[in-house]
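seq as requested:
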Amino acid sequence: MQTVKIDDRIYFKSELLENMQGISHCFTAKNGGESRGKFSGLNLGFRVGDDTAAVTENYRLVAKNFDFPIERMTAAKQTHSTAITVVTDKNAGCGVSRLSETFEADGLVTNLCNIPVGVFYADCVPILLADTTAKVVAAVHSGWRGTVGKIAEKAIKVMCDKFGASPQNIIAAIGPSIGPCCFETGAEVAAEFDDSLCKSLPNGKFKVDLWEANRRILTRCGVLPEHIDIFGLCTVCRNDILYSYRTHKDKTGRMGAFIMIKKE
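struct tokens:
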């Protein structure tokens, strides 16, 4: 994981993705930005009650910092599903510059240049995927429901079936999210995961490792272990620089993970 500081803003990058030719990406934090009050910082969530003008300015800052064409930045309405949408010229910009035009999905895939696809997170696991040989990328929002539903596997299947990607060529970055140190849940949720991913607690609850769960999903798809970059940065432990829904409940913003194929 690389930490990038631009003015008063903090971003994170995957060293593996950064070493790939023709890819631009970022995981945002909450520092800097124009949002105020309970959303203070670089909030990228239009649907959390923040001032639209402030969020729009936050997108402008991110776009400027990473050379993203803001009019083509694309994000879906996330519903904790396993739905994957292919982003084309027709729906590019939806959810950001075309705010009133949206679609529901928790994973976005594109093979087109200059379309930054992204997902929001504030504890859930953001995953960015790229195969530069096939020239296809994906952004995945994998909360516990998405992890149980293997949404990362579904995104890889779309990358391979539609765009000729190979699992062995895919680089995956698992960004800041709630860690095994803090994802405490009841028995009914823990039962959805392999026992080896769960740690029982004296209070009858469990701690579940979503990072390892998603790593296993990726490797079972054929992604090489050395091609998986796990940041290991917990949103709850580091809620000083990261938005955390579990920490602040509904009184918090959303960070974004975006990836784009650069135009040659």
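The mean pLDDT is 97.
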